[in-house]
Amino acid sequence: MARIGVFICHCGENISATVDCSKVAQVAATFPGVVHSVDYKYMCSDPGQTLVGNAIKEHNLTGVVVSACSPRMHEPTFRRACAEAGLNPYQCEMANLREHCSWVHERNEKTDDKAIDLVRMLVEKVKRNNSLQPIKVPVTKTALVIGGGVAGIQAALDIANAGHKVIMVEREPSIGGHMSQLSETFPTLDCSQCILTPRMVEVAQNPNIKLYTYAEIESVEGFVGNFTVKIRKKAKSIDESKCNGCGLCTTKCPNKKNPNEFELGMAKRPAIYVPFPQAVPNIPVIDKTQCTYYKTGKCKICEKVCQANAIQFDQQDEIIEVPVGAIAICTGFDIKKADFFPEYGYGKHKDIIDGLQFERLASASGPTAGEIRRPSDGQIPKKIVFVACAGSRDPAKGIEYCSKICCMYTAKHAILYKHKVHDGTAYIFYMDIRAAGKNYDEFTRRAIEEDDAKYIRGRVSKIYERDGKLIVVGADTLMGAQTVEIEADMVVLATAGVANQGAEKLAQILHVSYDQHKFFSEAHPKLKPVETNTAGIYLAGACQSPKDIPESVAAASGVAGKISCLFSNSELTREPLIAVVDRTAPPQYSSCTGCFMCQSVCPYNAIEREEINDRNGNLVKQLAFINPGLCQGCGTCVAVCKSKSIDIEGYTNLQMYSEVDALLNF
Amino acid sequence: MEEIKKIAKQLLSENKIQMVIGFEKGTANKVRPAFFKNADDVEKLIYNDTCIHNLALYLKKDICHHIANVGIIANPNVVRSIIQLASENQVKEEKITIIGISYEGKCVGILDFKAAEEFAKTQPKGLKPEDRAFIEKIQAMPLEERFNYWVETFSTCVKCYACRASCPMCYCGKCNVETNNPQWIPVASHKYGNMEWHIMRAMHLAGRCINCGECTRACPVDIPLNMLSYMLTDFVMDEFHTEAGLSTTYAPALSSYTNVDKENFIK
Q1: Nearest-angstrom CA–CA distance, B9 and A231
Q2: Is residue A241 part of a domain?
Q3: Residue A631 C-alpha, separation from nearest chain B C-alpha, in angstroms
Q4: Contact in structure between A161 and A262 (CB atoms under 8 Å)
Q5: Same domain assignment for residues A175 and A322
Q6: Chain A residue numbers touching B173 (CB-CB < 8 A)
Q7: What residues make up the domain containing A203?
């Protein structure tokens, strides 16, 4: 005989201001099977939970209905409280009196009646709850880190240092990401390469990390703790085990006039190349679209000069299949190029460059060896205009969000410029200076006060060329919106940070959600900032939204912490709220007819074919079998099953029917 | 008919099949389904215009359970049923020998599943003009009138479940109507309870029914159940461009997705 306890929460005034909680408790006490019914101000508080626990022991309850907020909020809390008092946690249900009642209605009798109905439904449901046990699944203690930028590097090192295996996959021939392209970093102005390259080397040398560069994710199957990942290792045309990185091939390659991606087109590179001198691994790649041999069938000079016989023109892409337990997405971001801006000439003026190109100009290892020289004629620009918010915060351009890093790097650019060109002047058009962060505001003050950056609050309407000068036309909104015209030698656009190319495809491979700008979505904006909605897949860095280096690194360490937690157990515990196919005595074995319509609707590929054989091994029947590790309990299979042979534990047909029955037949 | 007998006899005597499902003479000048297990009995087999019952029904019955290979005299309706059952993983090609017969009564010999699919495509479902007129009449009714029409029509149902018993697609071992915990469908025969049963049956057959019309022939109170099925078939064709009973790899409309499925129900 059911002995149900009902606990009505006031949620401070969230519920009690609209619903007469004591009345609901009194009425609930009269429901068949209810032996205890009380209301309390904060049921989720420690005294509230104690109230539930004590009642379970005192009244020997077989089921509990907590009528409070959404189960999304506090179901785990109350299930835990019930478990501590000795009741199976799945004998606890929540009636949502807050989101489903008090927040959406006004205070009157009908609202009370609805609250009573909601409690009645859950009382009828909980009477039919089964005591369930959590499901245990094994864990492969290897993490996959997708992307080898600073976030990926940090995540990989932290996970590896916690003693777990890591597989890192990087699309480019070298790890390092955008950070390796930067000159100095704000707000301390330490050299980007100097702080990053040692970490890149650490990745290469760490025995727990297996690095695949020039590789992409082909497919991902499985579930938390048990993913199977296929990695496409693109052919570098180099035998990595033989190459010793001497670099002779790159110097002897006769085809040296190809745009250098790392220098953003501001320099040239050979067809066989290492992206930058500090690359990890220091192994060249043949660009098949540019290589003379691949185009004409003749040349092979690199093969002739290679002492190690490492050149392999016939190398094919290789598919590597690896089991992993968790996945960290650290694929970073991209920026809009100058050709995104018709008002600034669609990128046709050579001296209108983006922020990343300026980083290369300012970098000691860049195309100008660190001297600020304009791309068109190599002259040192005496007047530079920086345009902040180029594209960002501009709904007309489809980018409503703030790209976050531009205010800071533009201030940095102005400082670096002044340090290198003492008699030059830097103008900065800005909307707001967003410099929230440790030592960030001080840094922008330094740009203005010590390094003489001329900040103009306003936007730039157009830029055009006149007599070899770039005429920047903008408004100064602090001077009554008067028109400002500056004759600049060079313009740097702090263009919007956008999702990386291929982010959408990767999201679809991984089954993680992404927003309208193709940035990956976190599971909860505040409380689960590094998790995705798919268990076992995490996010770090600018693939989630524009982030600076400290934030990316912090998120990456967060992901590493999450993954280390996941790997700290040999088995994972999963909620047992999954679909099950009924089983009966022979000769039926199950009411399942084996039509497998459930198989085609299952979004998680969780339904398998189970064969029932007689003792001679003859097939008697084929039944649907639901893999408890894969099933997410969505219930689509239940809906298509004609013979009603599938039930979701915790949400069985009987339970749902009882709830509806309680509502209709009262 | 002689050709059918010849094939059946030969198959049985060579032990390629152990039983053949066909028709024999029944009482009152009618035909009835018959199960022949040896070649001599096949003399009793008959086939004529009145042999219209859907014999595919018996493939899922106990009588076929332990038989290694069953021969079946299959008119186009039976062929379509077998193809549909195969797509639902209910019959295996190696356990069935189809002796195909066209609508005109012409024997087309033994059909493997591939040939059966081709055969089914050449045998269009016959919808009589009066049936088409009936469907158009129903579809022209305003929604409320149409609902009331069916409520009234179903009110005469006595829940004998002859429609279910005669339907080759109703092969579930445990039917929902017999589930009492929860009690999805009321047992008693009353207006709305009858409606629930027939709505459920129609939903379960949507995209699966091959329109043999067996349910209507079986109904003792003359409910035009096959008209409902025809309308559903039309609907599935319009919405999902698929038709049951033509392919053994058919993905049922209501349990498969394609990226060209209409989404106009999202408002």
Answers
A1: 59
A2: no
A3: 18
A4: no
A5: yes
A6: 588, 591, 593, 643
A7: 142-234+317-332+500-567
Which residues, including other chains, have CB under 8 Å from residue A162's CB and lie 6 or more apart?
Answer: A560, A564, A567
User: Chains A, B: CB contacts under 8 A, how many?
Assistant: 50
Contacting residues of A for B89, CB less than 8 Å apart:
594-596, 622
Dist. CA A355–CA A390, nearest whole Å: 10
Asked if the model's pLDDT at residue A165 lies above 90, the reply is yes
Q: What ipTM, to 2 d.p.? A: 0.90
Q: Is A270 in the same domain as A255?
A: yes
In sequence order, which ranges of A211-284 are alpha helices (DSSP H)? 248-252
> Which residues is A230 bridged to in the sheet?
A219, A321
pLDDT at A666 over 80: no
Q: How close B201 comes to chain A (CA, Å)?
A: 9
Average pLDDT over residues A429-447: 96
The answer to the question of residue A666 being in a domain is: no
This model's pTM is above 0.80: no
User: What is the mean predicted confidence (pLDDT) over B41-58?
Assistant: 92
In Å, how far from its chain's centre is CA B237? 18
pLDDT per residue as tens digits for the range A410-434: 999 999 999 999 999 999 999 999 9
Contact call for residues B39 and B13 (beta carbons, < 8 A): yes
Nearest to residue B213, comparing CAs of B261, B177, B163?
A: B163
Euclidean distance between the first and the last CA atom of chain A, given in angstroms as a whole number: 21
In which element (H, E) is residue A7 found? strand A4-9
Check whether residue A87 and residue A176 sit in a common domain: no
Q: Indicate if A377 and A480 belong to the same structural domain.
A: yes
Question: How many domains in chain A?
Answer: 5
Which is it for strands A142-146 and A285-286: parallel, antiparallel or unpaired?
Answer: unpaired
> Is there a contact between A658 and B182 if contact means CB atoms under 8 Å apart?
yes
Largest CA distance in chain B: 65
Q: What is the CATH number of the domain that holds A470?
A: 3.50.50.60
For A542-560, give one letter per residue: b (16+ CB within 10 A) or e. Answer: bbbbbbbbebbbbbbbbbb
Closest partner residue to B173 (CB to CB) among A591, A598, A657 is A591
Residue A653 is assigned to a structural domain of this protein: no
A-interface mutation test, from B209, B255, B257, B258, most A Cβ less than 10 A away: B255
CATH number at residue A31: 3.40.50
Are A470 and A480 spatial neighbours (Cβ–Cβ below 8 Å)?
Answer: no
B67 interfaces chain A, CB cutoff of 8 Å: no
Place of tokens 């005192």: A58
Alpha-carbon distances, residue B83 vs A125, A224, B141, B165, B245 (angstroms): 42, 39, 35, 19, 5
The pLDDT tens digits of the residues spanning A258-279 come to 999 999 999 999 999 999 999 9
Residue B242 sits at the chain A interface (C-beta within 8 Å)? no
A357 and A403 assigned to the same domain: yes
- State the CATH number of the domain containing residue A598: 3.30.70.3270
Q: Roughly how many angstroms between the first and final C-alpha of chain B, as a whole number? A: 57
SS3 A632: coil
Beta-strand pair A4-9/A63-68: parallel
Three-state DSSP at A81 gives helix
Residue type present at position A25: A
Residues A9 and A121 in one domain: yes
Are A93 and A191 in the same domain? no
Of A101, A127, A153, the last residue of a domain is A127
Same domain, A368 and A493: yes
Do β-strands A425-430 and A454-457 pair in parallel, antiparallel, or remain unpaired?
parallel
Joined tokens for residue A573 = 């515990």
Residue percentage of chain A with pLDDT more than 90: 91
How far is A520 from A490, CA to CA, in rounded Å? 35
Residue A272: enclosing H or E segment and its boundaries? strand A272-273
CB-closest option in B173, B179, B184 to A588: B173
Contact between B72 and B82 under an 8 Å Cβ cutoff? The reply is yes
What would the DSSP string read from start to end of A109-123? HHHHHHHHHHHHHHH
